[in-house]
Amino acid sequence: MEQLPTSHEPPAHPAHPAEATSNPNSNNTEALSPSPPPQPPTALTPGPRAQAFTTLYQKTLKATLSAIPYDAFAECFPHIAAEAPAALNAYHGQMVSRLRSLALDEFDTILQERNVVHHLNALEDIIADARRRQRSYPSPPPQQPPHTLPPEALLNAHLAPHLASQQSLLNAKLQTVESQNAALVQKIESQRREMEGLVGDLEAAVADLEGAGDLVGEEGEKLAGEGREVLGVLGS
């Protein structure tokens, strides 16, 4: 029995779905969110002096506002005080409260604008550092009371400033005299050199005169001899 030939066909593969060749353009840019605002600076903690300053201002403000009592305020408005005392009392309280609020707000504004707390805290640091330095150095020895000092020390203490001023004055006068003496010494030396020059000139002149006298004497003797010879010739 013959079998019919069977044809082996390759199995049919399912077709792959076509992929999109292009994608639609999408805008990926996102809006940048603004940076958060900086944190407000931390308020400085008031030191002892800053607290004392604030307390003093509050006490002074309280004392000032307490000088406006309701009775004195009502005397300014006698008709309203008689007709509506409750309303006037409420208005007085509101006015005092408003004045207190305005004064405190203005005080806080000045503290912030002038940086008062920071400067007072810096003053605290300077004082603390000075006290620490003072404690680190040995304390000076106690001074002797003035009434226990000897008379000589008390006299010197009283006369020392006057004597110092007089000594300065005398030193100035001494320097002036020394400069004048130096000028006089230079003048005397100059005059001495001039006199020595004149004496030398006079000695030279005297020497010349002496030489001339000797020469005249020799010539006179010659002339006298010649005169005697002439007289002898004439007499013979």
From TrEMBL:
One of its GO terms (biological process) is cell division. Keywords: Cell cycle, Cell division, Centromere, Chromosome, Coiled coil, Kinetochore, Mitosis, Nucleus. Residues 174-205 form a coiled coil. It is found in: Chromosome, Centromere, Kinetochore; Nucleus. It comes from the Eukaryota. InterPro entries: PMF1/Nnf1. Residues 1-48 are annotated as: Disordered. Pfam families: Nnf1. Residues 21-30 have a biased composition (Polar residues). Its main location: nucleus. One of its GO terms (cellular component) is MIS12/MIND type complex. Residues 34-43 have a biased composition (Pro residues). This is Nnf1-domain-containing protein. It comes from Venustampulla echinocandica.
